[in-house]
Amino acid sequence: MSATKPAPNKVVLAYSGGLDTSIILKWLQTEYGCEIVTFTADLGQGEELEPARQKALMLGIREENIHILDLREEFVRDFVFPMFRANAVYEGLYLLGTSIARPLIAKYLAEIAAQTGADAVAHGATGKGNDQVRFELGVAALEPGLRVIAPWREWDLTSRTRLLEFAEQHQIPIAKNKRGEAPFSVDANLLHTSSEGRILEDPAEVAPDYVAQRVIRPEDAPDVPEIIEIGFERGDAVSINGEALSPAALLTRLNEVGARNGVGLLDLVENRFVGMKSRGLYETPGGTILLEAHRGIEQITLDSGAGHLKDSIMPRYAELIYNGFWFSPEREALQALIDKTQEHVTGTVRLKLYKGSVRTIARWSEHSLYSEKHVTFEEDAGAYDQKDAEGFIRLNALRLRLIAARNRRVGQ
What we know:
By secondary structure, this protein is of the alpha/beta class. The chain is 40% helix and 19% strand.
């Protein structure tokens, strides 16, 4: 324990029920002797969460101090969908599947702390990664008086052996498959699965096929394309093949469609906010389809000025999410601009999925700006006078002519 900081009275721990966070729970009890409240979020990671409750009870946590919340709908509605209205992609490729989940967890850490009278929160993110930043920036924005405890930055359990020894000393159950070094680490939610570390650390080595857990290999996907239609209202997907679905149900369905068609696999070396590069294998089947579909409906409903402005701010918006600034005023300001552009992004997109690819093949909308009579190669009945283009070009060429004349005059 730090000599300069008194022990907290009560700590809310982001708790998965796995070995690492169970060790953290016991470490907090032994290190600080304080009351522990656990918070476990169902973000669609596909795991049964009731064992987390039983594990917490076994470790001495009172029933009223165990919080297990189903946040799947809120996750997609209030975090994933707003991000996809922006077509947000980090470093040109990454759909921010881990990044967008962290502010929601931070939100509930802060809320549960306020509800239970806790004066601190704790998380299991390491001191090398981005998640520590995302959790702590989120908590700072929502409950600035809360203390944050990050055991990986404090304790001396710096090896797998030390962790297992601590677990055995405190009678924390260790599954047989946890005794050896795991070949890679996994983080999952309804938007994506992220695999990193160990066998994936050398970017020159091809990732083994078994790393992918959600998406089949494209070469193993069906030989027949699958066609689907996605309906949008004000920038958000609302239906698949005419069936209205809730946000979480819709993303779940798209995940199933994408996974069986080998869509959404990404092997990426990215720049972490803390300064280092890392390599990960990401599986985002539903998100990959959703991005393509949203781009498809924007093609006919969003005018060029708004669309190009939106595209110009997207990298900054994506970087804010990646770096943990979801609750910052600048992200909220950009979101307001983005949401304004989505007022007429309503309609339907038809997509073809085939062996790892997804592409728009048709789109239609009552809000469409597309005018066939203006672009036709046939007689346009006076909708567009082609002679007007001559003056338009002459005016746009004026500054280029002046620059060229100047350069000749001064000898460049």
